[in-house]
Design a protein that fits this description.
This protein has about 350 residues and is mainly α. It is built from 14 helices and 2 strands. Strands 1-2 form a two-stranded antiparallel sheet. The radius of gyration is 23 Å and the shape is globular. This is Xylose transport system permease protein XylH.
Length: about 350
Amino acid sequence: MTATATEPGRAGAARDDRVASRSLAARLLSRPEVGSLIGAIVIFLLFMAVAVPFRNIANVGTILYGASTIGIMAVPVALLMIGGEFDLSAGVAATTSGLSASLIAWNLGLNVWVGVVLALVVSVAVGAFNGWLLFKTGLPSFLVTLGTFFILQGVNLGVTRLLTGNVATADISDMDGFGSAQKVFGSEFALGPVTVKITVIYWIVLTLVAAHVLLRTRAGNWIFAVGGDAAAARAVGVPVKATKIGLFMAVGFCAWLSGMHLLFQFNTVQSGEGVGKEFIFIIAAVIGGCLLTGGYGSVVGASIGALIFGMTQLGINYAGWNPDWFKTFLGVMLVLATVVNVYVKMKADRR
């Protein structure tokens, strides 16, 4: 009697376990970064199979370095896209930062750190200007930052040529403060057979901080709210203007960090550097789960998108394939990621 009576209970418990398992799987598959994670696994397995150097653990540092230089900017760009805006000036803004630090320190004979601090002011000011102009004009951020892109591109080239007579800054490696600044922005360390660049650490830290802010703080709720419906967010007391300007300034800060690495890794900056990289940052964010319409996305996914870029760039070379096909890969990944993101969003909404 006792054994028979417990059979329905066991069956019910087993049924509950199956339901819980299906529910957990559904929640995982509805995460915005799921598409990029699957894509990263596929890319990893592909190059592990076809590219022998890809299997060399010593090359992990090179792959991570390539991913980090994209990921440092992809993370704030993803936050901005979740907030419903774009920044097409992000690529050249990093170059502007590096040029500012170098030109200020060199031409005024100052300690390199003075140039670094003033470059931070310039970079954050560019971000604030983008946000201010967005609200002042009411124009789409696509147009506002496209204008900033051309302005900065022209200023980068014009000012550099005016002050140096060349398209690149002078080598600042013998200036006061260069050694300590290089340790902060351009150093590396060995982790077994892997050489890890400092940008990898910055990339990981930025991803963790941004993910925490987005998912665990009130500011993160504001970002999702202003990206989903700015008018409704404003109606319930969300500081829409401050949130969006803050996101543009975050892009400016990371552009400064990227620009400082550019300067202290190579000791000089080419004034034409950065053109076209803004699209790579956006594509990484889209691959990571961000929708172009805003209000949805993941900074972890954007970092995975950057990792996909890092693996693909080097994987193509390691496999001996024609690198001209890399841009084709970008286009295919953008289309596929957009389709997957829309599908995942629909599945999440149904829940």
